[in-house]
Amino acid sequence: MLTISNLHVHYGGIHAINGINLEVPQNKIVTLIGANGAGKSSTLKSIMGLAKASDGSIKFNGEEITNKPTTQTVSKGIVLVPEGRRIFPNLTVEENLILGAYIRKDKEQINKDLNWVYELFPRLKERLWQKGGTLSGGEQQMLAVARGLMSKPKLMMMDEPSLGLAPLIVKDIFNIIKEIHKNGVTILLIEQNAKAALEVADYGYVLETGGIVLEGPGKELLKNDQVQAAYLGEHK
User: pTM of this prediction?
Assistant: First the structure.
C-alpha cells in the first residue's frame, strides 16, 4: 500500500532521514520505533508533504506522492494523528469530529461514522458538548484519533499516541488501535513505548539517527537482544 524507497530528508545542514526503505502492506499494523531525534516524525511528515524529501520516492497504492501537497495526500486516504494531540481546544468534541470529515460530502455516511466513533469512544459521546481543551490528556488523545477516523482513512498514521498518558489510558489507546485495524484501516504507528507498539504490530522497523538498523515481524523484534537492551530496558 505504502512504499518508501531510498528516502532522504534534510533540514538545513541536518540529514534527518538517510536513505530509508520501508513498506506498509494493506490491512497491516506497521510500527517505527526509535529514540528521540531518530527521524520517526520526519518520516511521517515527509509522507504527508509537511517535510520536503530531498531524494527518494514515496508511493501510495502505486502512485507517486513524493512532495505532493498535504491536501492531495489527505484526499487519497492518508491521515496523520500528530504528536501532542493538537485538537481544537475552543471547539466542542462534536465540532472537532465534524471538522475531521471536512473533505467528505457523503452526509449520511458521515453520520454513520460519527455513531461508529461514539461506539469506539463512549467517553467522547458523554462529552459531546464539552470544549476539547477541557478534556483530560487521555480523552484529548482519543478525540485526536477519532477526528482522524472521520476522514475515512485508508492509512492512518499515528505519532506517539501514548505520549504522556497514564498506563491504564495507554492500554485503552492500544486496544482502540487494534479495534480500528479490525475495521479495515491500515496503520503506521510511531511510538517510544516500544513494547506496546511491537506487541500490536505485524511488522516493525527500528530507526537510529535517520537510518533503519533492524526490521522484522513485531513479535520477533520483541525477542531481539539489541531491541530489548536499547528500548525495553532488559539486559541478558
Answer: 0.91
Per-residue burial over 118-157, b = 16 or more CB atoms within 10 Å of its CB, e = otherwise: bebbeebeebeeebbeebeebbbbbbbbbbbbbbbbbbbb
Kindly report the CATH number that applies to the domain delimited by 1-71+192-236: 3.40.50.300
Taking CB atoms within 8 Å and a gap of at least 24, the contacts of 7-13 are: 7/43, 7/46, 7/53, 7/55, 7/56, 7/57, 7/58, 8/53, 8/54, 8/55, 8/56, 9/39, 9/42, 9/43, 9/46, 9/51, 9/52, 9/53, 9/54, 10/54, 11/42, 11/51
Ramachandran class of 12: left when φ > 0, alpha when ψ lies in -120 to 50, beta otherwise: left
Tens digit of pLDDT for each residue in 175-193? 999 999 999 999 999 988 8
Cell 482519543 -> residue: 142
**Is the pLDDT assigned to residue 165 strictly greater than 70?**
yes
The three-point CA angle 159-102-151 to 5° equals 45
pLDDT of residue 234: 59
Domain limits of the chain?
Answer: 1-71+192-236
